[in-house]
Amino acid sequence: MGSAIAKSISKGNYRLLLKGNNQASLDALIDEIKANDNTADAEAMACSTEACWEADIIILAVPFEAEKEIASKIKEVANQKIVISIANPLNKTYDGLVTAANTSAAEELQKLLPNSKVIKAFNTTFAADFSTPVIDGKQADAFIAGNDEEALETVSEIVSTAGFNPIVAGDLSVSRTLENMQLLLIQLGIKYNYNWLAGWKILHH
Ligand SMILES: NC(=O)c1ccc[n+]([C@@H]2O[C@H](COP(=O)([O-])OP(=O)(O)OC[C@H]3O[C@@H](n4cnc5c(N)ncnc54)[C@H](OP(=O)(O)O)[C@@H]3O)[C@@H](O)[C@H]2O)c1
Prior knowledge:
This protein is of the alpha/beta class. The protein has seven helices and nine strands; from the N terminus they run αβαβαβαβαββββαβα.
């Protein structure tokens, strides 16, 4: 997801500060981004704290279980910044979520980063969809949830740059539904070999 999001939003007017554990993969990703568009602004960062200190918007493209550790590293430098939660907190057997029914991965992240503006986005879009985010000739819908209006607008622009149709679904608690929606799509994929690339196209424009 980190690579897919970085590649897709490199088409926009963003300076990408990319942090990954595998330096060779990160270098290859940056080469690919620049080969596609030599004006793209992307660079590797050695440390997540430094990357988040420089960034205005932070996207955590890691498993839910890793967010606690990363949040503790970036808490101070993510103050007042937008932090995008893309995680689906699936259990190991993909038949449920590890979060309780009265919360979500996004709300748990907001508790860990109380002074940041956590926004849920990209959890309902499969990594493979980013190369062609189109269903039946129409942009796939991508749902967003959060409590800060300005941050929702900023993230909608990012989602739109990535090629999806941004739909603000509600406040951060709506993340519970969004995370369960993706659990359902994954379960349908497993049960019926449902088209994993279908994604969501609920609203017709
Ligand atoms: N795949 C999808 O289609 C999809 C769709 C929507 C949302 N999501 C969500 O997107 C997130 C990433 O999923 P993914 O499919 O991209 O997973 P992935 O391919 O396994 O990538 C996860 C990345 O997180 C890194 N990571 C893991 N633990 C870490 C830690 N403690 N500190 C720093 N980095 C850590 C991994 O680094 P290493 O490689 O070094 O382990 C890896 O680069 C998940 O929360 C998932 O629920 C995925």
